[in-house]
Amino acid sequence: xxxxxxxxxxxxxxxxxxxxxxxxxxxxxxxxxxxxxxxxxxxxxxxxxxxxxxxxxxxxxxxxxxxxxxxxxxxxxxxxx
Amino acid sequence: xxxxxxxxxxxxxxxxxxxxxxxxxxxxxxxxxxxxxxxxxxxxxxxxxxxxxxxxxxxxxxxxxxxxxxxxxxxxxxxxxxxxxxxxxxxxxxxxxxxxxxxxxxxxxxxxxxxxxxxxxxxxxxxxxxxxxxxxxxxxxxxxxxxxxxxxxxxxxxxxxxxxxxxxxxxxxxxxxxxxxxxxxxxxxxxxxxxxxxxxxxxxxxxxxxxxxxxxxxxxxxxxxxxxxxxxxxxxxxxxxxxxxxxxxxxxxxxxxxxxxxxxxxxxxxxxxxxxxxxxxxxxxxxxxxxxxxxxxxxxxxxxxxxxxxxxxxxxxxxxxxxxxxxxxxxxxxxxxxxxxxxxxxxxxxxxxxxxxxxxxxxxxxxxxxxxxxxxxxxxxxxxxxxxxxxxxxxxxxxxxxxxxxxxxxxxxxxxxxxxxxxxxxxxxxxxxxxxxxxxxxxxxxxxxxxxx
Lengths: 81, 453
Prior knowledge:
The complex is a heterodimer. By secondary structure, chain A is mostly helical.
């Protein structure tokens, strides 16, 4: 499964578990308007760490938080698992 | 008026029905002659550390030195040289009693050998018995050990005199050098029981077989010990009449699993700690304890203060030794157990250790509360909940789960367990990540290995 697909399917899983209604997952989607709250993102980052073997937020020296879904996916794609 | 002569462990064994303490390697008879500790007479009035490799040697030294030494410092076998040195300094230990001449105690002290065979000894050389102080380290795992001072009387406080019934045959998964095991050892001393103990080198298989041939009737251990036994095929060889759990929270899952495995047994969970002594026993086979205990429970008074259980009784330790900066008892004589308790209606439930709280985005979570929900799934044998660092929420809840049958370990099972967590817990307490693992480490103390930050 591609990194992009892994991320979007995890987002859908978490949204379903947490009973969150999410916006269509395109690259321009602002994370703050995605329908996921910070606990959902915390879960997402933890699960992606297990699936992709990396947590780019902690692995990076510079703390860079993406604002759109496209930037979020890019952050993972830039780091080979 | 003269004070009553001090009661020593040896006097107790002599006047009572006696004890038979059995390990795979040998046994100790309660009325055995003195002389296992070489040069014991020179230890009169001294501060002595019991640094034995085997439990049998520790038991011999305890019987022989209580009433003779001023202080008995009892350290568990997994104490590092550094921790032993700290205990030796704090308790002003002058002599170490040990069956292991190679052992490193961190600081040099003369060693009195605990031997297998007893030497003849002139009993008249022994002075009148003292009230020996029994020092036990608290079970905390980080930093310098804290030693709490008990007396034989405070240790024996919860133990009733034997009735007319035939003496029990005890087995314990505990080490007698920890409070939980020491209680069983003393219980056996008072009741004239046989007590079966597993030394470190004995496997669970061998121990179970020995318990079976000795027709063990009473068995004690922590919930983690019991879960380990329930995962062992040899569990069917035991037919205990009495099952005792202490040292960790006994949740509904372990109580009902034991009820199913041992339909004929009485199942009791007890609350005790090294500092607070034996608090109370719960005999109704339900988790937690009746809120009526807060109105008084025999000699023990219970209070909930800031959510933590406080106990006052003649069985609590008196003070910390060598740490004047720490107070064990509050002004009004209560011990704060640091065990967090919540009252719901007429029942009180243990939520977990104060120090074990994990912080999830600013919300405090007791891992034990989540484990209780996971363990309630009938496919689950045991679980351990912890925190994983998370860049978004600081920490996130993660769970390791051991299933009764590894074949159940699929995504569907995981989804269902998490679903029941979601139905019963606030959302920040539902594990973000759950893993099925083959086993979970249990410490030498019989408690789950937790990584407290």
